[in-house]
Amino acid sequence: MTEDDIYRTSTQYRMWSFTPETLASLRATTNAAAAAGVKNAHQNLKSENGQLNISGNGGGEARVDVDCLTVEEEQKIVGYYCLQTLDFVDFCEYPTNVKATAVQYLKRFYLTNSPMTYHPKKIMPTAVYLAMKSEDNFHYVKSFAEKLPKMTTEDILAPEFLLTQGLRFTFDVRHPFRGLEGGFMELLAFTNGKGQCGPLINKSPKQLVEAMMALEPVPGSARATSAKDLVARIQNAHGKAKELLKTSALLTDAYFLYTPSQIWLSTLLLADEALARFYIDSKVSTLSEIRPKLLTTLKQCAEVLRSSPIAQPDKEEKKELKRIDKKLGRCANPQKMDLVSLNQAQKRDPDQNDGNGLNESVAKKRKLERQKSMKESDDLFGPAIPDKKT
User: Which residue in 25, 59, 188, 263 is a FRET match for 74, CA 20 to 30 A apart?
Assistant: First the structure.
C-alpha cells in the first residue's frame, strides 16, 4: 500500500476534500439556508412581541426584511477569526500542530454553518480547546479559560458538542509539516552524496551534487560553489516554506483542495522554484505521464497560497471588517446567540421540539425503540423481580 492509498482512506480525503466548484456551491447553500433561518427567527421574534402588522390584502403577516451577510462577507469574517486564532495560540505558546488543527476546525465548521447562526467569536476558543485535546496537548478547561478575558468554562464547553457535530465527528487533520521536514532531510542528504533518486532515474550522487551546483540562484544571492553553500540555500528555502505552511496554507482553502504533499511542495516552489524543480526531477522521471499534471497542480496550489490574506489587516481592511461585524450584529440569529443557555436547555430536555433538541418524530421513535428493547429484555430474562417488604 502506497502513501497515497493510505491518505485516501483518511477522513480528510473522504469528507473534507473538494473541487473549487463544489466548495463554492457548499458555501452558497450554507449561506442561503442560514439567511432563511435568520429571517424566520426575526419574524417569529417580532410576531411574539406583537410588532408585525397584518397585511390588508392577504391577511397574512408582513415579512421581515433582514440584510444578511453575503458569502464573501462570511468568508472575510471567518478569515479574520482564523487570524485571531493564530495570534491567540502564539500568545499561549501552544505547539504549531495545535494552531494548525484549530484553524482547520474553524474552517471546516463554517462550511456547513454560518457566522449568522453561530458567531465565530464564540466558536473560536472551543476550536482551540478541542484541537489541544486532539493533538495530545491537553490542559484543564479552567486554566485555559483564564487565558481568555470575560470567558468562563461554560462559554468554552457549551459549543463543544455543536462543534463536533459540525466537524462530523472527524478530528484527524493531516498536515503538510512532516512532509516538508522529510523533503528537507532528503535535500540535505543529496548534498553529501547520500540521497536516493526515484525509479527510472539513473543519476549518481556526484551527478546530483553537480546538478544542484548548476541551479539558478535565488534572486539577490550568489550561485552555490560548495556543499556548505548548498546547505545554506536549502535551510533558507526550508525556513520560508515552513513559514508559508504556518500562515498561507492555513488561511486559504489549500487543505480543502490539495493533499498535504502537494501543499508542502507548493510552498517549496514559492520559496525556491529551482530547488523545488530539482527535487521533483530527482523523484519523478521526465518520461512519466503524471509529471505534467503534477507540475500543473503544484502551480495552481501555489496560486492559492499567494492569495492568502496578510497577517495584519491594513486600515482599509479593518474598516471593511468593522462594517461586516456591525452588519453581523444586526443579522445574527436571535435564537442561537446564547449558546450556554441553549446547551443547558438541551441537557434538561433534549426531546423538546424547540429548534435546538430532537424533533417530535425522532423523540417518539427513540421512545418506541427503548420500550421495544425493554420488552425484549423481559422476554429473554423474565420480568424484574419485585421488591419484597419485610
Answer: 263
